[in-house]
Specification:
Elements lengths: L37 E5 L3 E2 L4 E2 L1 H15 L3 H10 L2 E5 L5 E3 L12 E9 L5 H10 L18 H4 L8 E2 L1 H11 L11 H10 L16 H8 L18 H16 L19 H11 L2 H10 L5 H6 L11
Parallel strand pairs: 2-5, 3-7, 4-6
Antiparallel strand pairs: 1-6, 4-5
InterPro entries: ParB/Sulfiredoxin_sf, ParBc_2
Protein name: Chromosome partitioning protein ParB
Organism: Raphidocelis subcapitata
Length: 320
């Protein structure tokens, strides 16, 4: 297998995330059958089914891939085989990847793929309609604009090398890691969260990794009532101890710069199982917008963001 690494990422965005990353579930609605036959495929010959990725999270995955590569080529190849790419066979025998759009940016040139479905007998129009119905498309541009499935063929990049950065996709992943919402099996759930946050959390970024500085404010919106229609929404009053611990770690990171890694994961070895009040206190000590959310709940009150966002209309969110 052939692989290399790009070197344009900022150092701050390269923190690894143990075995976790920004995509807790396969984004698409079609899964690779466990008995699927795998075959080597050139990453640049696989057609994307979304127009953007979260580059900060891609950089996290790059660091993870470097760790795997450090174990030697054989171990890296075995890792790639253990994480095959699900593809859909489309008209003219084109291969459309429905997950792992970040591979090229991670430096992987050749991967292992498996056919999740064969739709090669369909016409172009029927193919895109079926892909949309199966939840295998994210019909939004990098700035959140929605397209019809019939527009996707012309709008999608030809290769994954042309995918644009959607920082709100990264922000959503970081918010989840910081306890703002829980994992969901709904296709493209973190893209949905990104679109929700887009109109609520203005970003001023000089590098993809800068998005980590906006997580606290984003959590207050994620736990607000206006987000109740989104998959995995959890008001702080119903948050688990693990979620509150993650918010506390975020507060410590903001206050001291060392409470959490820059991908939003808790550092290993940190004591868990904090009481809600303790977590709220940690957040209040340095969590910015997240502090108000946790502290308000610990006092038995409504999330501070519920009142601030109550007048905001819930956006129309596509299911993928």
């Amino acid at each position: 297998m052939s692989f290399s690494f790009h070197h344009s990422e900022s150092a701050a965005s390269l923190a690894s995330s143990a075995e976790g990353d920004g995509e807790p579930v396969t984004d698409s609605g079609i899964k690779l059958p466990p008995d699927a036959e795998l075959f080597p495929a050139e990453v640049l010959l696989l057609r994307p089914t979304q127009m953007a990725v979260g580059m900060q999270q891609v950089h996290v995955k790059m660091a993870k891939a470097r760790k795997k590569l450090a174990k030697g080529p054989a171990a890296f190849d075995a890792w790639l085989q253990a994480h095959p790419i699900p593809v859909v066979l489309g008209p003219a025998q084109a291969l459309y990847l429905i997950d792992h759009h970040h591979l090229y940016e991670c430096g992987v040139k050749t991967c292992y793929a498996g056919a999740a479905r064969d739709l090669s007998s369909l016409s172009e129009d029927a193919f895109w309609a079926e892909m949309a119905a199966a939840g295998c498309l994210w019909p939004h541009t990098a700035d959140g604009s929605r397209l019809e499935p019939s527009q996707m063929a012309a709008a999608l990049p030809n290769t994954v090398a042309e995918l644009r950065d959607d920082p709100y996709r990264s922000l959503a992943a970081l918010v989840r890691k910081a306890g703002g919402f829980v994992k969901s099996t709904r296709p493209f759930s973190e893209f949905m969260w990104g679109n929700y946050l887009r109109d609520r959390v203005p970003l001023a970024l000089e590098a993809p990794g800068d998005v980590v500085h906006f997580v606290g404010r984003a959590i207050s919106h994620a736990t607000a009532g206006a987000a109740s229609h989104l998959p995995g929404h959890t008001p702080v009053s119903a948050a688990t101890g693990e979620q509150l611990d993650a918010m506390a770690d975020l507060g410590a990171a903001v206050a001291g710069g060392d409470g959490a890694d820059s991908d939003g994961e808790k550092k290993k070895g940190k004591a868990g199982g904090k009481k809600k009040g303790a977590a709220a206190g940690d957040c209040a000590a340095g969590g910015g917008a997240a502090a108000g959310v946790a502290a308000g709940t610990a006092a038995g009150g409504q999330s501070s963001a519920d009142g601030a966002c109550a007048a905001e209309a819930a956006p129309a969110v596509a299911s993928g």
